[in-house]
Description:
It is a single chain. By secondary structure, the protein is mainly alpha-helical. It contains eleven helices and no strands. It is globular, with a radius of gyration of 21 Å.
Amino acid sequence: LNFGLAPLLIFVAGLGIAGAGLATIICQFVSFCLLLAGMQRSHVAHLSLGALAWGRDLAREVNNGGLPSLARQLVGGFAITVLNNAARPFGDAAIAAIAIVQRIVSFGNYIQIGIGQGFQPVCGYNYGAGRYERVREGMRFAHRAAFGIVAVVCVLTFAFAPQIVTVFRDDPEVIKIATVTLRFQSVTLALTGVAMITNFALQTTGRMWRATFLGLCRLGLALAPSVAIMSRLFGLAGVEAAQSVADVITVSVAIPMTIGLGRELRDREAKAEKDGAARA
Length: 280
């Protein structure tokens, strides 16, 4: 809806940047209404004032489950601000190029998020049922899917970077900067699927602090120093490559977490088998 409504309000209605903001607000409201209607019809979580409840344990459980998602959402806006500020000394073309690449790359991010959200109920139900081998199997499948599908997208964005950027802007300087930036991103984006799926797994299995830290890495904790250092050392080229450097750092953090979680799940699986054998 946003994909079609934004250009309609910006160009056809002549609202400019206000049209983009209005399109987002409308889409968020429509999404909320659809979600609300779906919840009411499915009876999975029927909403009513009489069902409202509050308690410390409930608040802790909601917080543990939601804090990693909140962290992921917050750093998205932070990343835009950091990259735009770093690009500002190099002119409006650099700012426009960075913004365009962020929009294009978000398509790959959405694929990873979609696979992660599909993995979450599989992870949660099986973890709660003590089927730890199925949690590990689901993680392996989700990791392969997130990497493989996004890798195909990245091959296309690398090969056809100038043509893709031209869809958004026909300024030669913008196209030049955005092409380099998009190709940098295309090299590393598929790797971040490891971090995304591991983040969802940590969140769903109740490992809140690890999940929150990993969720903050790519667009926050790793990006800010990468932008600061790279832009000082390499100028505009540093800004173009900063997100890719942050991606590599994030994956380097995610891999030990993935291995550690797998080891914890195997230990739980072995303990469950041992307890089952003892009862038998």
